TrEMBL record, chain A:
The protein's name in its UniProt record: Helix-turn-helix transcriptional regulator
HTH cro/C1-type domain boundaries: 5-59
GO molecular function ontology, one term from the record: DNA binding
Top-level division of the source organism's lineage: Bacteria
Annotated source species: Pseudoalteromonas distincta
Keywords, sorted A to Z: DNA-binding
UniProtKB/TrEMBL annotation, chain B:
The UniProt record lists the keyword Transmembrane: yes
Organism whose genome encodes this protein: Pseudoalteromonas distincta
Lineage of the organism: Bacteria, Pseudomonadati, Pseudomonadota, Gammaproteobacteria, Alteromonadales
TM region positions: 17-36, 42-64, 85-104, 116-135
Full protein name: Uncharacterized protein
Keyword list, A-Z: Membrane, Transmembrane, Transmembrane helix
Length: 66, 139
């Protein structure tokens, strides 16, 4: 599953640590979600989407293999 | 969960991984070296001193982590996940090392005491836990 979190984050001028602090997760969570090494829970996905004022579907995109 | 708690957990996990590596290497030396040189007493003393020294060093550097109300699992989702995966790696590593020892048991049995084998298994578990956490934590 791919995602556009890094794009949204950079557009908002936030570092990984800033975003992690805002949604109360570790920086490693943000780092590994952005690089698609870790699939977050629905709760974290919703928190990120809410923070960027967008939908989960616009942040996360399913691969052909998913 | 406050940001302070999460940062404490991240810090604790990093310290914990390195401590596991140090402890694993120390235990490995304690368990393997006497087998090779047919001696144990001086090295056991040194090994115990090194283990206690590294333990207190990490406890002090880790900032006395009992203050962060750490209970059994990490609360952060990713840290909790890699911790669980690391334990799975530990179990697999332990099974493989026990299998290896089982296959070699006839040649090992006369020279190796139970305490040395127990120390060896602990060393393997500590090393695998530390390496697994560090490997999974890389950016």
């Amino acid at each position: 599953m791919q995602n556009k979190i890094a794009k949204y984050r950079k557009e908002a001028g936030l570092s990984q640590q800033d975003l992690a602090d805002l949604i109360a997760v570790s920086r490693k969570t943000i780092s590994t979600v952005e690089t698609a090494r870790f699939t977050p829970s629905v709760i974290i996905a919703l928190k990120i989407a809410k923070h960027f004022n967008t939908s989960v579907e616009s942040l996360f995109v399913l691969d052909k293999n998913d | 969960m406050s940001n302070y708690d999460i940062k404490s957990e991240e810090k604790f996990m990093g310290q914990n991984a390195w401590f596991s590596l140090f402890m694993g290497v120390t235990l490995l030396i304690i368990s393997v070296y006497p087998m090779l040189n047919q001696t144990s007493a001086p090295l056991l003393f040194l090994g115990t001193a090194a283990f206690l020294g590294s333990f207190f060093m990490f406890v002090i550097r880790g900032g006395f982590t009992w203050r962060m109300k750490y209970h059994l699992t990490y609360k952060d989702e990713y840290l909790n996940t890699i911790d669980t995966i690391a334990y799975k790696h530990v179990v697999l590593g332990l099974l493989f090392s026990m299998g290896g020892v089982y296959l070699l048991s006839d040649t090992l049995a006369l020279e190796v005491s139970h305490s040395m084998m127990a120390t060896f298994y602990l060393a393997v578990m500590s090393l695998i836990y530390g390496v697994s956490i560090l490997w999974q934590s890389k950016d």
